[in-house]
Design brief:
heterodimer; A: alpha/beta; Rossmann fold; six-stranded mixed beta sheet; four-stranded antiparallel beta sheet; 9 helices; 10 strands; about 35% helix; about 25% strand; globular; B: mainly alpha; two-stranded antiparallel sheet; about 5% strand
Chain lengths: ~240, ~350
């Protein structure tokens, strides 16, 4: 069945919204500490896939196994407790709390008071948020809010991190920093990254999975994926049958 | 340690101020006004309970008076049966707390949305009003306590020293007890909001989905907050039954439910001081209006509410503390008024 070095596996995962099939029979598997990029045009089902993995959406059919545990019908907080952290597409933070409070709430979900404080401090230093600790997150720039959310996810010390467009709205500098952070966090956690920024993906990618119309189109190295005719058609919007 | 003391400095100051007021007021206020003032203090506890669950928990409960009324009835029925008031006092806190927990369990775990939550809690209050109103007649008796329908329960025995039913609380005593309870609830809530639990409750108000993705079961935290709010409202109900020595289904009425919300709106959500200030101010105005014949009291109160919603939407306390903060009085204000952060 599930191989021991497999941290995440989906079997025949499917999500329908009325007549619309957002995700159709996806079999996906991820190894421990693997770094995977997920690409695909808008509406390919990437975010829906992430939302099902974190129990924000219930699958129509299929199964999700995390670390050997069936989490198909779990609650979001249970999935988080098992060790999946997610950064959603739109910065999903506590706008009326300060940076320090945001990160403290995250860190205290896993640790006691003293360890949470140390962990929070460490994460803020690593992400360069120390100067902003007392600021309300709602007053920060888009890129900074992305960092806060990233910091919250990292503070959870998850076994699997899902990042939905982590570099969106960031400057080139910030994007480089994000890539660096992802590589570092990857030493202890498996990561799946959804991105449109190909430069960014080239910086971090090992294996790339391409989603198209709710299905896995191809799964291979970045070079092979870039050279693939089908992927080009999908991204350039050329129809397959004419 | 130093940081800790500074953090609690405002709380210590507020406690000292509260105690000073408690001791000074009976000396400077005339006895008739003291009767009024005691009821303000009791209602301020009720206002605080809604200030907690709405202002911090983000749960808009239109039926906070349900728990208030249940607390009052629980006390009245129990004290008539037991004679001694110790257990009835505890019941007036525990019974509405459990009732809130039960109601909250069904509503939060079914993920009922805000608007429906308001509608359902209001309906529960009105159902209680009808049910208690329908209990006239000798067959509606709990132990030796007749429920009395719309006439209510008259001659509710007062609180007494634990184990000594003959040592009943005097009217001055009720003022001091209510004041101490208000202070205790205020201090207790401030400490609670500083704890991890309080932090999570506020985080859930800010962004429920994010809190859940961080591993917190929002349903559970809301349930506990709601139950605490219910218990506090019940305590206020018990004191209210003592104040009037009488309790009737009117406590479950629409007017009573609406009143609490108005106090919190006028005083300011997202603070604990706000609901207390709002409660005192509105009740004082209502008392003054009741003493004159020129204008209809409800008309004036309605105008005040509309004025506040339009002109001071944040409420008195947040508006004043924001203004002072802008005038660089921040260090002083921050210690007296708890940090306020509400969308």
């Amino acid at each position: 069945m599930t191989s021991p070095d497999c941290i995440l596996e989906t079997r025949g995962l499917e999500k329908r919204f009325g007549g619309v099939v957002a995700i159709a029979s996806v079999d996906f598997s991820l190894k421990q500490r693997e770094l995977r990029c997920l690409i695909g045009p808008n509406g390919a089902g990437k975010s829906t896939f992430f939302k099902m993995l974190t129990a924000q959406l219930k699958p129509t059919t299929g199964q999700i196994l995390f670390d050997g545990i069936d989490i198909t019908r779990a609650q979001p907080h249970q999935v988080s407790r098992l060790g999946i952290g997610i950064k959603n597409q739109v910065p999903d933070v506590f706008n009326n709390l300060t940076v320090a409070e945001n990160i403290s709430v995250a860190a205290r979900s896993r640790h006691g008071k003293a360890r949470a404080a140390a962990k929070g401090k460490d994460v803020m230093e690593r992400l360069g948020l120390t100067a902003l600790t007392g600021r309300l997150v709602g007053e920060l720039a888009h890129g900074q809010r992305q960092w806060v959310e990233l910091a919250m996810v990292v503070a959870l010390e998850p076994k699997l991190i899902l990042l939905d467009e982590p570099a969106a709205g960031m400057t080139a500098d910030e994007t480089n920093k994000t890539a660096e952070l992802i590589r570092e966090v990857n030493k202890t956690a498996a990561i799946v990254v959804v991105e449109h920024d190909m430069q960014f993906i080239k910086q971090i990618a090992q294996t790339v999975t391409v989603f198209h119309q709710g299905r896995v189109l191809i799964e291979d190295t970045m070079e092979k994926v870039q050279g693939n005719e089908l992927v080009r058609e999908v991204y350039l919007g050329k129809s397959e049958d004419d | 340690m130093t940081a800790n003391w500074q953090g609690n400095g405002g709380l210590v100051a507020a406690t000292v101020l509260g105690l000073a007021l408690l001791l000074a007021l009976p000396q400077i206020v005339d006895p008739v006004m003291m009767i009024e003032l005691t009821s303000y203090v009791i209602m301020a506890i009720l206002a605080l309970s809604l200030g907690l669950i709405w202002g911090y928990g983000g749960i808009l409960c239109f039926g906070q008076s349900a728990f208030f009324g249940i607390g009052a009835y629980a006390y009245a029925i129990a004290v008539i049966n037991f004679g001694d008031s110790t257990i009835p006092l505890l019941l007036s806190i525990v019974v509405p707390g459990l009732f809130a927990a039960l109601l909250g369990y069904f509503l939060f775990y079914a993920r009922i949305t805000d608007v429906y939550f308001g509608v359902i809690t209001l309906t529960v209050t009105l159902i209680l009003y009808k049910v208690m109103g329908a209990t006239s007649g000798s067959q509606y008796v709990i132990g030796v306590a007749p429920l009395g329908g719309y006439n209510g329960i008259p001659a509710v025995p007062p609180l007494n020293l634990p184990g000594r039913p003959d040592a009943a609380l005097s009217f001055d005593g009720l003022f001091y007890l209510s004041g101490l309870m208000l202070l205790a609830v205020y201090v207790g809530l401030r400490l609670m909001l500083k704890s991890r639990f309080g932090q999570v409750v506020v985080a859930i108000r800010e962004n429920e989905r994010r809190a859940e993705l961080l591993g917190y079961d929002a349903r559970f935290y809301k349930l506990v907050t709601f139950a605490i709010g219910g218990a506090i409202a019940g305590l206020a109900g018990c004191l209210f039954a003592n104040w009037g020595m009488f309790i009737s289904p009117d406590v479950f009425g629409l007017a009573q439910s609406a009143q609490v919300i108005i106090w919190v709106i006028v005083g300011g959500t997202g603070t604990l001081l706000g609901p207390i200030v709002g409660c005192f101010a509105i009740q004082w105005v209502a008392t003054k209006l009741g003493a004159q014949q020129l204008l209809n009291a409800n008309l004036v109160l309605g105008t005040i509410l509309i004025g506040f919603v339009l002109l001071v939407p944040k409420g008195v306390v947040p508006t004043v503390s924001d203004a002072l903060r802008r005038l660089k009085f921040r260090p002083y204000v921050a210690t007296l008024v708890e940090q306020r952060r509400v969308p």
